[in-house]
Amino acid sequence: MRLFDTHCHLDLYPDYDNVIDEIERAQIYTIAVTNAPSVFRRSSQIAEGARFVRTAIGLHPELVGQRYRELGLFTELLEETRYVGEVGLDFVSPDQRDRDLQKKVFRTVLERCADFGDKFITVHSRRAAGDVVDMVGGAYPGTVVLHWFSGSSKVLKRALEYGLLFSVNPAMLVGEKGRRLVAQIPLDRLLTETDGPFVKVGDSVARPHNVASVVSGLAELKNLDPVRVSETLFDNLRNALTTKRTR
Ligand code: MN
């Protein structure tokens, strides 16, 4: 099985060197997301030479209030990587000014990325799924992946109509609600992630190899052979990375 993790905070593991060794040994393609433009260079450096790691540039919505001034740096660094994340909206914050600022930043992120047409963007949408999907729209020139989607079935349906992808982590398959939501997503729109170290698998912090449990969970949920599921998921990733979309 060829495994991959499209959303992992590699730079936030205290023992990231060990995690990188594991990734390289098990050959798990990993997109290392970052939370602010100012940490992108260092995060790239820690994975320098790693064949299976790609570092993404991000500006996490929960940090936008403190870090929005780094948006210029985001734009400057954007040509250094094809991968973007973690970006998006988080409306756990009830502060309307913060929400507006997040939207402004996310709009700029989407516009700058659209200039390239081949960006792979991993997007956070907690309590803001409808707004995120509306902002991306149905003709976005790039690959947009909704990471840890937890919106309504109605928003999910719209996201599917718009051609968006969904990355699933182990925590999403634990509860009935998450499983029901994931069951509504066709296999050809799914990818795997861990969101480590923020997700736990049992008592341990998730590491990229835990995407294997997502593959088996999806196979069980969809009543399909795990090997076939892993092949389809890998095709999804490859297709996303070989497509360039223009407006
Ligand atoms: Mn994350």
Description:
The structure is a single chain. The protein has 247 residues and is an alpha/beta fold. The chain contains 10 helices and 10 strands. It has a single domain (4-242), classed as Metal-dependent hydrolases (TIM Barrel, Alpha-Beta Barrel), CATH 3.20.20. The longest helix has 19 residues, at 96-114. It is globular and about 45 Å long. Manganese (II) ion binds next to loops.
- The CATH topology name reads TIM Barrel
Give a quick account of the main beta sheet: strands, pairing sense, barrel closure.
Answer: 5 strands, parallel
Helix content: 40-55%
Number of strands: 10
Report strand order across the widest sheet. 4-5-6-7-8
CATH architecture: Alpha-Beta Barrel
Described by the principal axes of the CA atoms, the overall outline is globular
Radius of gyration: 17 Å
Instruction: List ligands, each type once.
Output: manganese (II) ion
Mean pLDDT: 97
CATH H-tier superfamily: Metal-dependent hydrolases
**Count of all domains:** 1
**Tally of contiguous helical segments:** 10
